Amino acid sequence: MGWVKSPIHKRAHQNKRYNTATMLQFKLVLLGDSSVGKSSIVHRFVKDSFDEFRESTIGAAFLSQTIKLEKHPDVTIKFEIWDTAGQERYKSLAPMYYRNANAALIVYDVTQPGSLVKAQSWVEELKNKVGDQDLVICLAGNKVDICDEDATAREVQREDAQLYAQEQGLLFYETSAKTGAGVSAIFQEIGERVYQKKGMEVPSSTQARKPLNVELQRPSTNDSTSCCS
Amino acid sequence: MNAVDGPGYLDEPQKSGSELNCPVCAQTLHDLAKLNEHLDRIHGFGEVSNEDADSVNTQLTRSRNVVENSSKAAKANRFELKRDHWIKPVMGKSRCRTCSKSLTQARQAINCRRCGEVYCKNHCNLIIKLNSNAEYNPLTGEWCKCCINCFGNRAGYNEFGAVCNKTSMFKELRGSKVEDKQLRKLQLENRFIRLANGIQQINNQSSKSMLASIRKYTEINKLERSVVPWTPDEAAFACSLCSKPFTLALRKHHCRLCGKVVCNESQTNCSNQLPLMSLIRAASDLPISTEFVDNNAEDVQIRICSACVRILFIKRKFTRELSLPEPSILRIYENMRTTADVILSILPQVLNQAEEFSATPNAPDVALLTKMRRKLLDSFALYDRLTKQMLKIKPKNPAEERIQRAIVFRASMLIQEHMLPLRSLTNAASTQNSSHETTPESERSMNQGYGNNLSIKEVKEYRDQLMVLKEQKFLVENMIASASKQRKFDEAETLSGNLRELNEQVEMIARALGEEGFS
What we know:
The complex is a heterodimer of chains A (229) and B (519). In chain A, 35% of the residues are buried. A 6-stranded mixed beta sheet of chain A has the order 2-3-1-4-5-6, with helices on both faces. Chain A is α/β, with parallel strands linked by helices and 229 residues long. Chain A has 8 helices and 6 strands. The longest helix of chain A is centred in the last third of the chain and has 23 residues, at 206-228. With 519 residues, chain B is mostly helical. Chain B contains 14 helices and 10 strands. In chain B, strand 7 (253-254) and strand 8 (261-262) form a beta hairpin. In chain B, helix 2 packs across helix 3 (57-76), helix 9 (328-359) packs antiparallel against helix 10 and helix 9 packs parallel to helix 11 (398-435). The two termini of chain B are 75 Å apart. Residues 1-16, 48-56 and 431-451 of chain B have low confidence and may be disordered. Classes of the chains: A alpha/beta (229), B mainly alpha (519). Chain A: This is KLTH0H09768p.
């Protein structure tokens, strides 16, 4: 009996690895004017924390986070997030990070109309330099918590931004890194879109092999961090 | 004084020997020192200085006598200084009062001759004149060593007299004046506002009906008198500003803002008829309603004296002109000046380098020299361009034209002056190069130096980019280190991929910059 069972078990295991439990790695870049809350959104997403007095980013920061898609529970997506600095000085760094990205999250501040203009210029730049067939672009209006408290603070109407996003074919969300509203939804949606694009291109070849390595190493990683540091 | 300065005269006191008579009171004294003291004490010669020129002849001879006597007396009998107030230094225990250095050898210690305190040699090296009682006496004393305290505390040293601070008084006085002025200005402003608003209103009404238009000028006149009471004509005999008496030819006029009687002389410019609209425009910060601006209010003029104009409008004009963008002529001049600074700072370096190079030609010098020379030539080219730009500007007034001409003249002078040594340098360098075989390295650097023709702006941009990239490289290196420490090897791999990209980018920009890169 044991002889019969074990191959079946093995095969099931293999199936799970190669076909059903797909792990994909996506490169995501955050763009937008300075102090609109790019880093705050990322930190809410990755660490589920919010810092009221975050210092402005220098250069580009790197963070990663793994999520499971809600619509495809067997798909795991690992986001490699490049959080770029919004200051004009670091503008020359951005092309390096959006060049091979799968997704771009362009953030503006709903209380700052100037930041939407800047976001639009980023959209232009992405479309000119990368082309949107390879890239999922998402527009996010951050800091809605301020508008919830005080409706007069809002300078960019949701409808205006949404209309623009529709014209350009972008995903659109309004978020608040402070309360966490809309942050996980945005990454779910981005993951979903990228998975649809990628899933069609590469069903299992390069992307699927990677998880093998990762899964083998993962337990040891967790152990070492939990007991040594 | 020279007249009485004979050798025979000088010998006289010595001849008289031990017996001396006071030249003033004829009292007999034993020796010169006694006579000296007697003269100082009884006749008050202690204060008399040699410079007192307007004395009678006899007095002069006397004072001369005193000085001569004193010096001779000091030489004659040895000067004995009081010593009993000296503090005896204990070797090894006493310390210098100034530097607290412990005094171990008797040679090092020294007493201040005046206060008697112990000092080291270095801090008792000043000299003042002391009398035998160790008191300061600038006239008859002998030069003695003293400490810094005694030197500084002696009478007459660094004396400035009593200090009386009058700043607060001045401030008070000035404050009240300024306040007066401010009040005066405010008053005039209020009057002007009332006048301007009133006139505009009258204007507005007159445009509506015939009757009002007939009465317009009487209305304005009435308004003007209501704004400020006019000084009656009979009370004024002369212009209140230039004080010229009024005659049949020089008529009396009233300033509509201060009400004073002034003349209308074109030379002194005491008062003028000024169009209301331009006045309102000149004082646009005042709350004057401008709703009637498009009516033909231009024809209304009001007479204002020069004093009121100065108070109300001069400062406004000044601040407005200050806020205007500076004229292009100045902007270009500023650029020219910085370029000239660059030239002047590089030129001597280049010449030095060239000299060194001609003495001992070797490869690294060539590269440096080439780089500097290129920079210099670029600066000259820029300077020349700026000069041409300056020439293109059309001057608005004669003053500006003069300034422009001066700047261009100075610029051509500078170029002539400093291009000349450069030309000889070029020759030297080229002959040197042809005689000396150029190494491939130097050749390459030269080609590169001349090859990339980047404008200053491009260079600046590239440099900024390079700086940002290097910063990011450093950040990513740190991220890799921390990622591998936390055993997140997949992250480290991604990051190293990015680092490679960064390195490529850095190299690319460094290549584009060429010689202009950070050395």
